User: Fold this.
Amino acid sequence: MLPPDWQGNAITNDFRGHRVVRFVLTEEASGYVSREQQEVIWSDHVAFRPIDVKIGPDGAIYVADWYNPIIQHGEVDFRDERRDRTHGRIWRVVWKGAPKRPFRPMSTRSNPELFEALRSDDGVERQNAKQILRQRGPQIADELTAWLQQVQLTDEERERVQLEALWCYQTARSVQPTLLKQLLQSQDGRIRSAAVRVLSHWKFLIPESLELLRGLVQDGHPRVRLEAIRAISFSPLQDSERQLADGSAFSEETVPESARTVALYEDPRLIETALLPLRQPMDVNLDYALWLTAKELAPSWRPAFEAGQMNFGSDAEQVAFAFSAINAGAPVELLMKDLYGDTVTAEKRARLVQLIGGSADAAQLGRLTAAAIGAGDATTISTVLALSASRKLNPAIDAEILRKLTGSDDAVLRRLGLRAIGQWNVASLKGVLEQVLTMTDADTADLSSVMAGIVQGRDAALLDRLQQLAADEKRSVESRAAVLERLAVARPDVVAKLAAELLSALPGPAGAATATRALLNEKAGPKLLSNALADRTLRNDVALEVLRVLRESGRTDAELDAALKKAGNIAARKTLTEEQKAAILKNATTVARAVDGERIFRTESLGCLKCHAVGAAGGLVGPDMISLGASAQPDYLLESLLNPNAKVKENYHTTVVATVEGQVIAGVQIQRSDKAITLRTAENRVVVVPADQIEEVGQGVSLMPEGLVDALTDDEIAALVRFLSELGRTPEYTLSRRR
Assistant:
């Protein structure tokens, strides 16, 4: 037994942080939120690795301890002598205030005694009783019915015990419609939601199940709605349950009565029932459940919709949600009706615009853009710009509507208008762009919008104008670098020469990354820049900055790497001798201070927090460092700093995607499907590359740049290793993961 305030809590392990952790769970909408409590166990012993936890039949907590100081796989040599292949421990944790009780084996109890155990306030006892009853087979059903009829239950326990009994009937394969309907009427939403889960398994065997689900998807409790949404299209054993119900499992000669109920679930209009919860408050769990159900039902409803056999009751929100789930061509004219009506929220409009923009023709895109401009809707205009670029389809829109947009007092709308003129090649309005380009005091954001549009539209005369700006030595370094960044996509060969000239003249690293990043994302970019740097000299810090950009791109290019090191006179740290490494490690474990290492880690020039999080702060590109010191040894940390590509953590290799347009995008792969690859870049940007734009996919190097610590002294590297080795290992550097 555990303390009363621990009942309903979750207990789990943090093997990296040497902890057994407890969480209090609280209902929130259709799900739960957890709040971390004080650790059940915390140890500073480097080998304490709790990997599993169970509550035993005696009510004690049992913890399986792997007992190993090293937990990585490929990162640390399998023959490393610190690996412990022999020891392991099991800990038993007992509440000292637990009442004494005799132990009675479940396996020797009679069925009535096991039924009585369903009334216990001990969850472990109830669970073990149900397991034994399940093993005793379907014959327990009649005895359970007799017990329920004669047992005297209090009002407080009645529905809970009946639910336990319902689960026992389920394992005995005994369908109990009366008891199920009774629990579906419970005043407790938790009881109702659990009963709906059982209904999902019995739906083909209960004739009125679909009618029940129509009401349950509109229930006042969000978790009941969640369970009902999924029950319409899914249960874990749905295929076998369907075959048993319609008689196909055993090729029965006579069609069973339940086959009629199965046929009801083949009605394409079932999707309209599933989407009824859209009329009530939504949350992330409900949204996903609806998305999944709409997708699973699509083979039925989509052909019916296209054949005109159903229309979602002309409910545009249902249409939008259903088609967004299958990511397919949507009925544009229907979705555009009342797009700016009073009942359409901004969130709903954004979803509709994505669907419209993905299927609309040029004229429809033009009407959508004009409506957005009339409503001052910057979000929709921005979405249309992005969709028209990916589809290579320019909206058919009156030039005067765009001209008015460029004169807007709203800076965001004005800049979108400027970008649209260039991107959509509106010939009659080129003069507006020329005017911005010739202004010496032009707004930086206005100029950026103009350049983005020009590069996307690829008008030769306007690209020539950008090239002139990039070569103008009277302009600031920041301004020229910004032009080079935009122009690289359209004219990488020209940009390589101009960038080399600019880099050789820079008094410091400022502007170097901006001038080269886009160029190095072009397929031929590294080669072009390498050639352009021949016989040029760069400041050491400028060359280091460009090397950092190259390595953050996730690509390797030995020729450019050598050219930059030669131009900037750079020596590599990773060539340190074993004696030099040993000296740094000795410093890290003796003299060096973690507080100094933390200051270095947070230095903006290193950019560690741009990719890595430590607890609640930092980037998402690289692994969270919150418990790094509890799992990684100092020698591994030093090697990772000096040579990041020596041992890259699993799932953090970069994926390099070459597009049909000659661009190269590198990042950590988040998702991959037959329609797109989603990457998170070194700049913490999420980029989706459509499958039809991909020419080649390969594995790159670590996003952590080589040479990152080249500018640090040995003492600074030692301090950095000391700081990293203490994360999650010592109380001063043990933090929560909560953001």
In short: The chain has a mean pLDDT of 88. Residues 470 and 476 are 10 Å apart (CA to CA). The radius of gyration is 32 Å. The chain has 34 helices and 14 strands.
